[in-house]
């Protein structure tokens, strides 16, 4: 996955298209593969969330000294670390969003399978109960 805004945007579009294909039945992912991919996505999301938390502590503005130019430089680096625009924190949040979209595509396969198993089990249990009467 790229790290620039264009690459992240392209990744979002790609995974949204895959989600539509999966929903319409045009994309098939084996349940075991989907489960493993979901697991990796969950682990990577956790890793990214830990990195996001660390961006708050990347820069200590006071460590730049007391000169006005040093304080200005410190604030600039602080904005690059965890500011609201074009910062490391923003990029990490965008990566998390892409990984969560990926995960939603993978989870569809084994969640659907679990629901189908429960539904079939309930019907079989109902038939069995009916035969026992």
Q: In a few lines, what is going on in this structure?
A:
This protein is an all-alpha fold and 133 residues long.
Description of the structure:
By secondary structure, the protein is mainly α. The chain is built from four helices and no strands. α1 packs parallel to α4 and α2 packs antiparallel against α4.
Indicate the overall shape: elongated
Q: What average pLDDT do the residues reach?
A: 84
DSSP strand (E) fraction?
Answer: under 5%
Helix proportion range: over 70%
Order of helices and strands: HHHH
**What structural class do helix, strand and pairing data support?**
mainly alpha
Number of H/I helices? 4
Structural Rg = 23 Å
| Extended strand count | 0
First CA to last CA: what distance?
59 Å
Unreliable spans: none
Task: Give the secondary structure arrangement, pairings included.
Elements: H1 5-24, H2 31-55, H3 68-82, H4 88-132
Q: Keywords, please?
A:
133 residues, mainly alpha
